[in-house]
Amino acid sequence: MDGKALSGSAHRRHLLSAVTHAPTVSLAQREVGAKTNEPAPFRPPLEPLDLAGAVVTFDALHSVKDQVRQLVQEKKAHYVALIKGNQPTASAQLKALPWEQVPVVQSVSGTGRRSPAR
Question: Structure pTM?
Fold first, then answer.
């Protein structure tokens, strides 16, 4: 899930999209108001999608209990969420976990450049 502002449109439009990573396909999209935050329209684009077993990624703006609960309980999906310092309870809980005991099974590094499209 990711939000983007469309440039070049007569009126600035903001869209929230459900997009697959590989291949890149937009599965659902919803316009959100220019003065609103994205969390409110998070649920509607996901409603028609079968996400059982899928991994959903989203930025810190969507790391909200109700949205995570919907993904896990209703959609039977997994998720990768970003937690920032402005979410003090969740941030403290994550910092308290024994991260040094978690084995690294794969590591990748790079320059951030994308490979050419095929």
Answer: 0.62
- Report how far residue 83's alpha carbon sits from residue 60's, in angstroms, rounded to the nearest whole number: 5
Contact 32, 16 (CB under 8 A): yes
Within a domain: 13: yes
Q: How many domains does the chain have?
A: 1
Tell whether the torsion through CA atoms of 56, 58, 63 and 66 is positive or negative.
negative
d(CA 44, CA 25): 18
Q: Give the closest residue to 89 by CA, choosing from 117, 65, 55.
A: 65
Cα–Cα nearest to 61, from 77, 41, 44: 41
**Residue scoring higher pLDDT (104 or 64):** 104
Query: In this model, does residue 118 exceed pLDDT 60?
Result: no
**Domain range for residue 30?**
2-91
